[in-house]
Design a protein that fits this description.
Blueprint: H1 3-17, H2 26-36, E1 45-46, H3 59-65, E2 70-71, E3 86-93, E4 98-104, E5 112-119, E6 125-126, E7 130-131, E8 136-139, E9 147-156, E10 159-160, E11 182-186, H4 191-223
Signal peptide: 1-23
Biased composition (Gly residues): 165-178
Region (Disordered): 162-183
Length: 239
């Protein structure tokens, strides 16, 4: 007889452990539908990319490193030579005989840059290759009082950018496009040179003046020009 109450107690405990099923209300279906609705992606923004910034990281690397999708500026095909870069500000330091040249990258894939520097009508000299992230370079050994032509060239696997002129073979006609790859660079004379020039001109004028005076007196003596005689002083009459 004692086993029957124990059996009932075990059955009661077993049914109490079974989870109860709650009927779903219409509100529950609405919440599930809202949760399953796909969310629209965040709008893409422009990548922090500046064509004229020195040591600018390539935009593709910025896209991979950015936690949010960003857009890069359009580029031409890598199978074509790059477009000409745009020459920017040129800061001349006359005391040191140097200049700092800035430029902006073209809308093309670029592997490297280099500068061309020519003095007057002479053939331009090609500088060392520069990394594609560089937007600034220094020119040294410039002569004071001399005008130069400086050009920036971009290159990739398909070729190099063109220069203004016939067939893009040289920097002739650099006065063409306002925002082109070439520009004229005039190095002013050094201040010390101006002082020395002024002293030299003053010394030359002084020597010429002295020479003219000496020549004038010698010429008078050779030609025997009569000297002006001063009139004799009249005697003073005494009263």
């Amino acid at each position: 007889m004692l086993g029957f109450p124990c059996l009932l107690w075990l059955l009661a405990v077993t049914f109490s452990l079974v989870p109860r099923v709650h009927p779903l209300a219409p509100e529950d279906f609405g919440e599930e539908e809202e949760d399953e609705t796909p969310r629209s992606p965040l709008p893409a923004v422009l990548c922090d990319y500046d064509r004229c910034r020195h040591l600018q990281v390539p935009c593709r690397e910025l896209q991979r490193a950015s936690p949010r999708a960003c857009l890069c500026p359009g580029l031409s095909s890598p199978l074509q030579p790059p477009s000409p870069p745009r020459l920017g500000e040129v800061h001349v330091v006359a005391e040191e005989g140097s200049a700092i040249v800035h430029w902006c990258a073209p809308s093309s894939p670029v592997h490297q840059y280099w500068l061309l520097l020519g003095e007057g009508s002479e053939a331009p000299q090609k500088g060392p290759p520069l990394n594609s992230t560089i937007r600034r370079a220094e020119l040294k050994g410039l002569k004071p009082g001399v005008a130069y032509v400086v050009c920036v060239v971009a290159a990739n696997a398909a070729g190099e950018s063109s220069l203004p002129g016939a067939g893009g073979e040289g920097p002739e006609g650099t006065g063409g496009p306002t925002f082109g790859p070439c520009g004229r660079l005039a190095v002013p004379p050094r201040p010390r040179s101006l002082v020395h020039a002024a002293v030299g001109v003053g010394t030359a004028l002084a020597l010429l003046s002295c020479g003219a005076l000496v020549w004038h007196f010698c010429l008078r003596q050779r030609c025997g020009c009569p000297r002006r005689t001063q009139p004799a002083a009249r005697p003073v009459e005494r009263l």
